[in-house]
Amino acid sequence: MLFLIEDAINGILMGSIYGLTALGLTVIFGVLKVINFAHGSLLMVSMYAAYWTVALTGWHPYLALVIVAPAMFVFGYYLQDIVIKPIFKAEQDVREPITVIIVTTGVWYILDNLTLLLFGPQYRTLQDNPLRGRMLEIGQMLISVPKLWGFAAAVLTASGLYLFFQKTRLGRAVRATSLDRQAASLMGINQYKVYNIAFGIGTATAGIAAVTLVPFYNVFPTVGVLFDIKGFIIVVLGGLGSIGGALLGGIIIGLIESVGPQFMTATWTEAIVYGLFLLVLFVKPSGLFGVRYDW
Amino acid sequence: MKARTRTNLWFQLALVLTLGTLMAWGPAVPVQAQDVVVKVGNIIPLSGPSASVGLQGKQAREMAVEEINAAGGIQSLGGAKLVMLYADSESKPEKGVAEAERLINTEKVHVLTGCWNSAVTYPVTAVAERYGIPFIVPVSVADKITEQGFKNVFRIAAKDSWWTRDQFAFLKDLQEEFGTKVSKLAFVYENGDWGKGFAEQWKKLAAEQGYEVVLDEPYPSTATDLSPVVQKIRRARPDVLMLVSNAADAILLTNTLAEYKVNLKAVITSGGGHADPSFLKAAGENARYLFDIVEWETDINKPGAQEANAKYKAKYGQNLTGEAVDAYLAMYVLADALERAGSLDPAKIREALAATNYRSGPGMIVGYDAVEFDETGQNEHASLVMVQINDLGQGLERITVWPKGARRAGYTPVFPMPAR
């Protein structure tokens, strides 16, 4: 029983971090109606940014947020503005522009290979940071401290985003654009600026996710791919465009991954995750927490 | 027309006679000291995905041959020099076969060596066998290469299935040396061909040698969280953990094992991710006391090894590697066989190779102590090397501990691992 609780806690903590990595994906999809295949690469770029910030300054890893999140916002903002917007304009009349998906795939390859070129294939971990390897001991139970921080970051980021979209004027403008871009434009909302902002926010959440991962995870050029696949599953599971859904979807996957291996070999939990993914697609294509309308 | 045909016929007859006489004379003509060279055809990947190991193999061969030739060549052949001919396989089996045909038919090589990639070596063994040309394989690990009943293939390095054999042999020796008993093993491995192949042999060996397997756990190499697997290890309470991992998961497992304070007597790993150059840096102190299996390590305690490595490094700017060392040794094994054969007849060279018993000399800088081929052409003394990761005051390094004859002077392995 104690084992189960220990595994469930680890699953929830790790799962919330998965949810955090997928948040950006769901925000960008919700607004732009585009699956951003470069999301994993943006996470990877953020991880390098966080890694170097901490490695060079010697700060507490979470202090890197001050640099990484704004920097990634700007990166995402201009990535959308310069690379993706022209394609959008060319495909104005399509609700879900396919070409943009292809462009994001291109961005993924360029970012991954550029990183490989710049930093080489080495695996890096932050040595000697105040969170590395720290464990909370409760009786027989061991709980990872960096994951606990990651859980807090995930919950705070998700609630912050939710409040932003619900309460602020800009958030409402973003939601309006996501519901009907033409109507929003007629109401005086600059559609493309909203896209830039949504992309920036999505990328900044990838930045936050990166900061939570760096204290206990490896950084290498293809690290994004591992989280990318999980991100897609989480987002579909939770409902595309749903912020709470992404977090809960992540926790479900984390729980399966963490509790599952105690009853079977670890390889099988992957099969269960994909099985669940297919099942959700069959039974409830809009996802567990998705709404028929996007917000 | 008719006359024309006749002249042609006469001409052909004359040609056949001349050639026949020449051929008949061939062996009868005494070997002329200066003219004789031994042509060695080397098929290695010099471009393509394995180009860097191919280059190491080429450099090691060159260094050995320079030394052999400088020392007077092959005495029994009147000081014959070794001449190296290189052919690029590009790691492609069909290219390797074509190059083997060319080297044998056009270049008339006396011996073939190569090809590093098992997939290339395997079909080339058939070409060598057909022409009766001895084929020395320094490193190509696939078991089947020496298991075809061929007479002309000679492999220097250990084969695939010997990696696990040596891990268990090492474990046995370790228990005897330190008087600590190991009874419970845990096998944790990546769920690809490589990991599963190792695990299958581990299970067989464990059953034969009376170990209890308390955990047999494959995991996906792409896992982003390995704490569930580490929890299983922790709860199974094995004495020794055996791992097969790629790079990212090797680092993650090592760090997570330390975080969960899993106490083990030893961790035995299988190269791959644990031998990745960035592993020591990324896992840091958590990697301390791990045992890893490799083909060769630069600190190996064999006469001449340090000198050979220093010379190689000065020449080519890199340390010797497992691949390079076996290629280096292969040239000395060949020179030794040629010396005993005293002939350039491939059949004689083959016989001499089959009778090889090479125990000392400049080539013996490998972990094992001898080269002697069994009837399949496999060097029956070949073994791998076990290293322990430890910090002796100059940062973490890989220290050779097994076979005992190759152990770094003055080093005692740490076993069992101190409790975390």
From TrEMBL, chain A:
GO cellular component: plasma membrane
Keyword Transmembrane helix: yes
Transmembrane segments: 12-32, 60-79, 100-121, 141-165, 194-220, 232-256, 263-283
Membrane topology classification: Multi-pass membrane protein
Cell compartments where the protein resides: Cell membrane
Keywords associated with the record: Amino-acid transport, Cell membrane, Membrane, Transmembrane, Transmembrane helix, Transport
Pfam families per record: BPD_transp_2 (PF02653)
UniProt similarity note: Belongs to the binding-protein-dependent transport system permease family. LivHM subfamily.
Name this protein carries in UniProt: Branched-chain amino acid transport system permease protein
Source species: Desulfacinum infernum DSM 9756
Lineage of the species this protein comes from: Bacteria, Pseudomonadati, Thermodesulfobacteriota, Syntrophobacteria, Syntrophobacterales
TrEMBL record, chain B:
Pfam families in alphabetical order: Peripla_BP_6 (PF13458)
Keywords linked to the UniProt accession: Signal
Signal peptide residue numbers: 1-33
InterPro entries linked to this entry: BCAA_transport, Leu-bd, Peripla_BP_I
Record-annotated Leucine-binding protein domain positions: 38-390
Family to which the UniProt record says this protein belongs: Belongs to the leucine-binding protein family.
Protein name, UniProt field: Branched-chain amino acid transport system substrate-binding protein
